[in-house]
Each structure stands twice: as structure tokens, then as C-alpha cells.
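> run fold Nuclear transport factor 2
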Amino acid sequence: MALNPQYDAIGKGFVQQYYTLFDDPAQRPNLANMYNVETSFMTFEGVQLQGAVKIMEKLNSLTFQKIGRLITSVDSQPMFDGGVLINVLGRLQTDDDQPHAYFQTFVLKPIGNSFYVEHDMFRLALHDV
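> ok
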């Protein structure tokens, strides 16, 4: 497979769609369609999860109802298998908590004419040293 020349547009479009679903508690369960039942991996604040069911259990366990999100940058790179590596830098605020910077990295893998999230890593930029 070759590098996907549309990697930048794919990355930006994916990020917009993902956060639109994630940031609405009523729509968040629809994120399950973006993950593979068996082969998707997520690392959420150091907790490793595998498979859409476990990933969605984690996402659905988050208790906040309101999210304010500012995306600073979306950087994408093509992968040799036709996939896309996406790195997001942003700031989010949940409910009435203080805003925090965060990083989220996705690896999208091609499947037919679409993609699924093979890898998803999320980390707040907290420095508790």
C-alpha cells in the first residue's frame, strides 16, 4: 500500500468528528463505531485497554457532563500502510474544573474505503513532580 496523499485532511476531519461525538455525552456511545472490537488499543492516563468494549467502558465511565475544548494543533503524518498518524495538542475543561493542556495521539488504519482507530493515547499535561 502507498502513502495516502490526503493524510492532512483525513486527520483534521477525523479529529473534528471524534471530538464532536466525545464532547456530547448523548453522542459519546457512537464512538464505539470508530474502534475495532478486538484490535484497537487505548492508553488513557496510563491505563491500557484493548478492544472496543473495554475502550467504551472507560469512556462511558467518565462522569463529567460539560466539556470546553480548545484545539491548538492537529499534526498528521501518512503511514506506509495507508494509515494516518495524528497528534492533537489542546486544552480542555470539564464541568467546573480548571482547564488543562492535553495530548492525544491516534493511529488510523484503513479498512475498505474508511478507517478505524487502531491506537489512541490520551494524557493530560500535568506536572506532579
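The chain is about 20% helix and 40% strand.
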